[in-house]
Amino acid sequence: MSLKIASGRGPEADSQVQEEPPSREAILAWLREEEDSRLDALWQRADAVRRAHVGDAVHLRGLIEISNYCIRQCGYCGLRAGHRDLERYRMSAGEILSCAHQARQFGYGTVVLQSGEDYGMAAEWLADVVRQIKAETGLAVTLSLGERPEPDLSRWRVAGADRYLLRFETSDPELYRLIHPSQPSRPSDRLAILRTLRELGYEVGSGIMVGIPGQGWDSLVSDLETFRALDLDMIGVGPYISHPATPLGSGEWTRALPMGQQVPNTERMVYKTVALTRLVCPEANIPRTTALATINREYGRELGLMRGANVVMPNLTPIAYREKYEIYPGKACINETAQACQMCLRHRVEAIGRHVGAGPGGRHRGGAGR
Ligand code: SAM
Ligand code: SF4
To answer: Among 171, 151, 149, which Cα is nearest to 159's?
Structure first.
């Protein structure tokens, strides 16, 4: 079957059918579109591109939040080192292994180990954990452990880690410097680390927050262009959610933008960005983020999947630790057991006519979704 997909040239070009990625002008026009009937065309186009390139399978990746210690001072995140009231934890190797076994029992193909940038987790200790997960479960292992030095990233890759997630958060250098300060001894260059990860042979994931205070329209368009330039395998797009115990959330750190230039952190803006991400990077694995489920608890999960996403990351973190991994307040699914999470997600996936994918669900190259 030859599937022709509309080009995404912007609201004026809905009737055209081509597989060209949308231009900069078209991306901007879509981001600023507010008319429901026109946006329906964007949702449908993103869904068609998703089906053609990655198919109807929804891949489940079990998320294990292994430590909330962090040396960084990101202005948006509740885990920042400066948040002294947060009680810190670090899971033991045995606890992590037991979550990985649970992932396997639930039929997930991947576990994602996520944490703050925690040097209390020695590189060799983590390499051992990765080796054990691979040996005992055979699952794909994704790491999301911050800006660790190249020797650590390399050691984990050799131990068998398959993928690494590191959001560049915003492609606007000035905004990035404001919200993500460098450490005196550890300057922050996430784009350089993404290139290193690629050279080390990881599948590489990145992403952004939508509606960061100080984020203008042009910078969001550039974010989407950066996804394409990096040829990312996984792309996470979620709303910025204000945390009052952070300098961005309290308004202590601000960046003034001209009137009308601030991108809103609304649910609809996130759907538009997810849909455009699918048009720009048709083959990428795109999760429906927890942050999206947080701002629409009822239908955020389904709508994300119906507007371009094809991955969900059910939480496997033991309940006792979940509320301590408070990136932002009110995180979805904080009190649901891993068992309840997986049953709820399966129902939600099937209710929208999709199915849970089998196997690791790595990147598809060359179209033809399965
Ligand atoms: N420390 C690792 C890192 O920074 O890559 C992984 C954990 S970090 C908590 C994962 C992601 O959470 C960040 O990349 C950021 O996009 C997101 N995040 C942090 N604070 C947030 C907020 N206030 N609203 C929405 N997303 C947030
Ligand atoms: Fe640490 Fe990541 Fe939060 Fe930054 S976003 S403070 S690196 S956990």
So the answer is: 151
| Section 141-156 average pLDDT | 98
Q: pTM for the full model? A: 0.93
Element (H, E) at 52: helix 36-54
By alpha-carbon position, which residue is closest to atom 2 of ligand 2? 116
Tokens 């949308």 belong to which residue? 22
Contact yes or no for 60/357 (Cβ under 8 A): yes
Q: Ligand 1 pocket check: which of 126, 246, 327 to mutate, most ligand atoms within 8 Å of Cβ? A: 327
> Looking at the predicted structure, is the pLDDT value of residue 153 above 90?
yes
Nearest ligand to the CA of 80 is 2
Among candidate residues 125, 123, 128, the one with its CA nearest the CA of residue 151: 123
Assess whether the C-beta atom of 74 lies below 6 angstroms from ligand 2.
Answer: yes
The band of 350, judged by pLDDT with boundaries at 50, 70 and 90, is very high
* C-beta 117 within 6 A of ligand 2: yes
Mean pLDDT for the chain overall: 91
Q: For residues 169 and 180, is the Cβ–Cβ distance under 8 A?
A: yes
d(CA 315, CA 140): 16
Q: Are 54 and 364 in contact (CB under 8 A)?
A: yes
* CB 181, CB 253: distance < 8 Å: no
